[in-house]
């Protein structure tokens, strides 16, 4: 399976990237150790859209069918203006599923997390916060309870505010976009046409949309130029402001925000990282948001971390020298992730334009932009998904 099945790999961070990395290593016969700061896995009240490249990696890891069954396979997508004008229709079934066998899947984050945890033999050591990486060769990581570990390889999959990153590229902080995002999972019946497609509406300073994520729930998101209410406002006042802000958008948005209950919605700031100059130092390496946190507008953040996982596991399983393995991983992944990162930033700028004229021009541009160019772009991204042989001969 692997020439390195005795390699001691420690992963810090049990989010989507850390869990997928652990699974990819297991598939290669390497049993990692996985450390997670949270005291337990709590259901996150949001959905996630897994693009074709993410699903192709999960297919290679033997999880795609379970993910598809637990979520909703989208056949298409629509982008509308705030007055309801159709700007673009995306044919996800005809373009990606027909060509690659997998396409976009919308799923509850908690369901994805559960599937990953169930697929893993590795036990996640929760309530274990890494506080520092003292050395990179060999790696020495320190935890909040004073214990230290000295694995052969240390993977930092600890998110945008990564602690492990300090040992690789010190002093890199998140960059805030001046917008916030509201998210919720809502039990609501969608009109039949929207039951298997994603919907988005591009407004002035506001970008909102969502998709059905299972039999009776819908994932909704909406950005706003700034928080609609102070943090101290009551849940009822917060909800009233949200309904007010999004009610004027085309259906199904008003139907969804009307079905929200106080406390359903949570707000996050939007931020990414600048491009890092490197992802690895000696035998310490970064993956997922720790390496390349993206703005969420292209829907590629987790997908890029999922690609990292399979490439990193392949590199570690096929190189005798760990430092060379990490260099090979970075060489294969960094350019692609950097490109996607820059696209997400451009998309973020476009999606949150605050001037009415700017937003009108943007929407006209989206409307006139040929659909076949969008199709070609998505097809190319899916076709370039890194899918190393799994080494099992299966
Ligand atoms: C509004 C929004 C919508 C999005 N939508 C999509 C989408 O539709 N599709 C998509 O592909 N992506 C999407 N993303 C991006 C996606 O959510 C992230 O890219 C992805 O969750 C990152 O996974 P990760 O495992 O790298 O990091 P994280 O999810 O941040 O996980 C890091 C883990 O490390 C743990 N941790 C942190 N520090 C330590 C420490 N010191 N010691 C131990 N453990 C630690 C944390 O508790 C956490 O569990 C979206 C993001 C946002 C903000």
TrEMBL record:
The keyword Oxidoreductase applies. This is FAD-dependent oxidoreductase. The keyword Oxidoreductase applies. Residues 7-180, 276-343 form the FAD-binding domain. Pfam families: FAD_binding_3. GO terms for molecular function: monooxygenase activity. Gene3D superfamilies: FAD/NAD(P)-binding domain. SUPFAM superfamilies: FAD/NAD(P)-binding domain. InterPro entries: FAD-bd, FAD-dep_Monooxygenase_BioMet, FAD/NAD-bd_sf. The lineage of its organism: Archaea, Methanobacteriati, Methanobacteriota, Stenosarchaea group, Halobacteria. It comes from the Archaea. Keywords: Monooxygenase, Oxidoreductase.
